[in-house]
Amino acid sequence: MSTDHAADHTPSQPTSQPLSERDHEILAFERQWWKYAGSKEQAIKELFDMSSTRYYQVLNALLDNPAALEADPMLIKRLRRMRASRQRARTGRRLGFTV
């Protein structure tokens, strides 16, 4: 007797979790434009009481949340493009060429 497990398999997609109050605050914070990176890092520490490393980990997870895309599609798409651009640049540097 053979069972077809392929019929049970659905493609893996990020699950949509509702946005928390902190998630909404992070999106509002990301809508701002920062002239100097240091001032943004300081504001992250003061407003969210977390290191900038942790903040960007939370932000990256938020970018993959479909609820965030639904809440602010233009912002999320812009941030995703920026993330993809940085990833391409890092990969290019590792491989020895400029992207």
UniProtKB/TrEMBL annotation:
Residues 10-19 have a biased composition (Polar residues). Residues 1-22 are annotated as: Disordered. InterPro entries: DUF3263 (IPR021678). This is DUF3263 domain-containing protein.
